[in-house]
Structure formats: structure tokens, C-alpha cells
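This section describes the prediction task in plain terms. A model, or a person checking by hand, is given the sequence of a single protein chain and must write out its three-dimensional structure as a string of C-alpha cells. No templates, partner chains or ligands are provided. The sample shown here is typical of the held-out split.
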Amino acid sequence: MPLKTHLDEQPTMNMTPMIDVVFNLIIFFMVGTQFTDPERNIELQVPRVADRGALTAAPERKLINVYRDGVLTLDREQVTLDELVAKLAAARKQYEDLGVLVRGDAEGRFQNVAAALNACKQAGVRELGISVQLTNLE
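The expected answer:
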């Protein structure tokens, strides 16, 4: 069995591809910054307005839960049908495209869910959704 008496050369790393990539990135960013200069030099007077704060974002959908015993909650607050109509109408005045999601108990009477949907209609809510859970029928 022959023994090694000399050391093998260590492999060297070829830096050429990495240097090429760095130079390409430098050129790309230098050219990219040149396009923004003409935008700054436009002789245009932009209208001025007072700062009144940020625009309000669209609110999340209101959530109505209809429990088995007929109890209604609007966003986790127990309400009657009349209160539900009033609160939804008030919320709709603030944001016209208000959305409502109705979740009814599977064991409860559908009449209670229908009453909640009718309250939404009376409040003028046009975007309604009903929550259901999908099951596998296999």
C-alpha cells in the first residue's frame, strides 16, 4: 500500500462569475437611478390640501351570531332584533358598502336566522353572507 508523501493542492475558488454579477448589479442600479431624475424636474405645481388625517379603511364585516335559543349577538354583543336593525343602519350610514356575515346554530330554528337576515335587509345592508361548514360526503 503506497503512502502519500506530498500534499495535494487545495482547490481554488473561481471569483469571476461573482465579480460579473456584482458589476451587473452596479450598472443596473446606476441606470435605474437615472430614470428618476426627469420625474423630479417636471415643472408642475401640485395642489395643496390641509392634513385631516388618514382616510378610514373599509371596516371588517359585521358578524351576527344566531344561537340555538334565538339569542342574537352583533360582534359579540347581545342585541334584540330592533337593536340589530338600529345598529346596522347606523354602521351603514358611516360606510355604505357594509358587509354582514350571519352564522346560525345548526340545531337552532331557521326562523331565527331568517329574522336576522330580514333585520339586515331593513337596515339597508346589501352585502350579506351566511356561514356554513363543508363536510365530506364520502
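For orientation: The chain is about 35% helix and 15% strand.
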